[in-house]
Write a structure and sequence with these properties.
Structural class: alpha/beta
Shape: globular
Strand content: 15-25%
CATH superfamily of the largest domain: Glycogen Phosphorylase B
Largest sheet: 6 strands, parallel
Strand order of the largest sheet: 3-2-1-6-7-8
Number of strands: 14
Length: about 350
């Protein structure tokens, strides 16, 4: 194996949970170059990674590149193997038509015939964490990871400088405890009510040294606004103001992240920030498969059956199960984390 293509074209959190595959591949094939095929927005988190030789973009501004163009770009690189972590018919056909001799993917889709190294493991059963499922794909190449999963993310100095200036403009000092509230999930999971985030934020800022910042994605402005109203303007909204790398720099300077199951939660965990995760009990979205992969965490799950019929099946709408997680319990967990505040941030590893 001299040239390997690793494919993950879906969401930010999914890409982050794929990163441990890089060090495993490097350990098994130390002389190989590794290329990743990624969506442009989520792929930003991989830029600067020393284990990735090249990034191929699957889209531009949300529009997929034409099939023939992608096929030509892949074919001319003469990859020895490709691993498709999140399979889709178009991707399977693309790699087959590109003539890659070894194609690793799931064995349980109708298009799995296009993979010649098939892995028969259902992820929907949530018997393992997504990180573990990803690493087990590599066993099709006789590659087993022997080390603890790592999440290498390079944060450029410019991104760190942006956060320094942001903190300065907000009057945040080294004596302050910064808490990030992230009330949305991008539609990927059932959500803790935005009003609860607001109540939590109002409780937190009663402490004179706690500063609350609120992040969110496009379309989540209303949820962020609810927190601002509840905190009487005490929380600071950051929706759409930072790039992915700047969010990483922000989270690295943060004392606590509180959020639903979503990409920014995994990004905060990867940056070493303590996190509180709010997860539904449904298997497909459960903590067991999608929980933050860190020891510095506390996760809350509703004490209700996984097949709860009271909750809407439409993700993003109010869920009675998630609403059963009390603000008081989450506030108590947040208080415990803040009592163990990290040492003041230094810039020694600003470009790590």
């Amino acid at each position: 194996m001299k040239k390997i293509l690793l494919v993950r074209t879906d969401r930010l959190g999914d890409v982050i949970l794929t990163l441990p595959m890089l060090s495993a591949l490097h350990a098994c094939f130390p002389d190989a170059t590794i290329t990743m095929l990624l969506s442009q927005y989520t792929g930003q988190i991989v830029e600067g990674n020393p284990l990735v030789h090249e990034i191929l973009w699957y889209d531009h501004d949300g529009q997929l590149f034409p099939f023939r163009k992608m096929c030509s770009e892949i074919t001319k690189r003469s990859f020895d193997a490709a691993i498709v972590v999140h399979p889709r018919p178009r991707l399977a056909w693309l790699l087959y038509r590109s003539g890659i001799p070894v194609r690793v993917g799931t064995g349980y889709r109708w298009y799995s015939v296009l993979f010649n190294k098939r892995v028969f493991e259902h992820r929907k059963d949530a018997k393992r964490h997504e990180v573990e499922y990803n690493l087990r794909l590599l066993e099709a190449l006789d590659c087993k990871s022997a080390s603890e999963p790592e999440f290498p993310i390079a944060v450029p100095r410019e991104a760190d400088d942006t956060v320094v200036m942001l903190y300065r403009s907000l009057g945040i000092t080294d004596d302050d405890l910064v808490v990030i509230l992230h009330p949305g999930s991008g539609g990927s999971a059932r959500e803790w009510p935005a009003e609860y985030f607001g109540i939590l934020g109002a409780r937190l800022i009663e402490h004179p040294h706690v500063r609350v910042l609120v992040t969110g994605g496009k379309g989540e402005e209303r949820k962020v606004a609810e927190i601002l109203v509840a905190t009487k303007g005490g929380a600071v909204p950051l929706v759409g103001k930072l790039t992915v790398k700047e969010l990483a720099a922000l989270f690295r300077r943060t004392h606590l992240f509180v959020g639903n199951s979503t990409g920014p939660l995994h990004l905060a965990a990867a940056m070493g920030t303590p996190v509180i995760g709010l997860y539904p009990q449904a298997k497909a979205m459960s903590e067991r498969r999608w929980g933050p992969y860190t020891k510095k965490k506390e996760v809350f799950v509703p004490a209700m059956p996984a097949s709860c019929e009271k909750c809407t099946k439409l993700q993003g709408e109010r869920c009675l199960c998630m609403a059963s997680i009390s603000v008081e319990d989450v506030f108590a967990a947040a208080s415990r984390f803040l009592e163990k505040r990290r040492e003041p941030y230094t810039r020694v590893n600003a470009n790590a």
